[in-house]
Design goal:
single chain; 155 residues; alpha/beta; Rossmann fold; five-stranded parallel sheet; two-stranded antiparallel sheet
Length: 155
């Protein structure tokens, strides 16, 4: 049995296609997340303003509306987000740092992008005087899992 990748995370899923929203919700709940699904911009903004969220998963196009106001609201609250969209072109330049996943995507890619978004602004602080044999830290996200490898001297 593997550890659940998104345990204790509260994820806003902003998706206007019901089947995609349902599939994404099931996937994220299986990984331990609490999922708050919405299908339009106004509901998403209301939920962002009233709920504690770990991250958002946002489709770029919601019916006839674009999701930029949703991204603005998430950014104002300091909530990281991932684009999950059928559009192959990257979203607005000001959101270039947000992970961009094109539908359809493997489960591991979606989960990995969310984990990256949640952890991307956190910085580990190491004192090399406390760890004299520490040479490098190699951090990767592979197949939806974050791995940290510490390389030390002759051990």
């Amino acid at each position: 049995m593997h550890a659940l990748a998104l345990t204790h995370e509260r994820l806003l899923v902003v998706e206007d296609e019901p089947l995609i929203a349902m599939d994404l919700g099931v996937l994220l709940e299986k990984e331990g997340a609490t999922v708050l699904p919405v299908s339009n911009v106004s509901r998403a903004i209301r939920l962002i303003e009233t709920s504690a969220l770990s991250a958002g998963v946002v489709d770029i196009q919601l019916g006839g509306d674009d999701a930029e106001p949703v991204c603005d609201a998430l950014a104002r609250r300091g909530v990281p987000f991932v684009f999950y969209t059928g559009r192959a072109d990257a979203p607005w330049g000001r959101w270039a740092e947000a992970p961009f996943v094109v539908k359809p995507a493997r489960s591991a890619v979606i989960v990995g992008a969310i984990k990256y978004a949640i952890s991307a602004d956190k910085q580990d602080v190491l004192s090399f005087s406390d760890h004299p044999k520490l040479i490098t830290i190699d951090q990767r996200i592979a197949d939806g899992e974050e791995r940290i490898v510490l390389h030390q001297g002759d051990h």
